[in-house]
Amino acid sequence: MGPTSVQANAEAGLPFAQLPEGFLEQIDEVLEREPNHPEPDVTFSHSAWDRRPFTLRSFLGPHAPWLLMALLLVVVETGLQHLGPLLTQVAIDHGVMAANTGVLVAACLGYVGSIGLASGASFLRVRFTGRLGERLVYELRVRVFSHFQRQSLDFFTEEKAGVLMTRMTSDIEALTVLFQEGLVNFAVQAMTLVVITVYLLVLNP
């Protein structure tokens, strides 16, 4: 092993290059104990370029099971959040009016339980959709960057650097908000409308 940079600088007479002897000895001991690190054998391969047109369907298709799971969590959360009016009707009609304390207590406990389950479902939904949204955004960033990498030098000469950076940052951040908040809130509001309509028809046919 050749001399270290510190030793080489000291031999060359460079200023402030010489360290105290104690430090040099400790450095030599560390270098002697340092094992040899072989060069890692890495196999590189070219990924196939999917030349099909990029559409929202082709992008979300591989994630269909996760999207269905997210939709199921939205349905469960919405149903539990709006279970109160139905339990209130049961408590009044079959508990208060019928002077049945057992039904009244059961309805109250069910109401409290539905609130707890709705909170748990909301937590799972936010956690699940957040992870799914980040996974989609990561894949989208990789696809956009890979597309830029395949372009010729003329493309980067004609296009403005600021526009390309905006595509990779601001535009994808807007899609992040769409995936994590916009679509989820739309699904929640749509399911809320459906659930409330069903409850109205059940309570007052």
UniProtKB/TrEMBL annotation:
Molecular functions (GO terms): ABC-type oligopeptide transporter activity; ATP binding
Gene Ontology CC: one annotated term: membrane
Subcellular location: Membrane
SUPFAM superfamilies listed in its UniProt record: ABC transporter transmembrane region (SSF90123)
Keyword match Transmembrane: yes
Membrane topology: Multi-pass membrane protein
Pfam families with a match to the protein in the record: ABC_membrane
Record's keyword terms, sorted: Membrane, Transmembrane, Transmembrane helix
TM region positions: 66-83, 103-126, 183-202
Domain annotation ABC transmembrane type-1: ranges: 68-205
Protein name in the entry: ABC transmembrane type-1 domain-containing protein
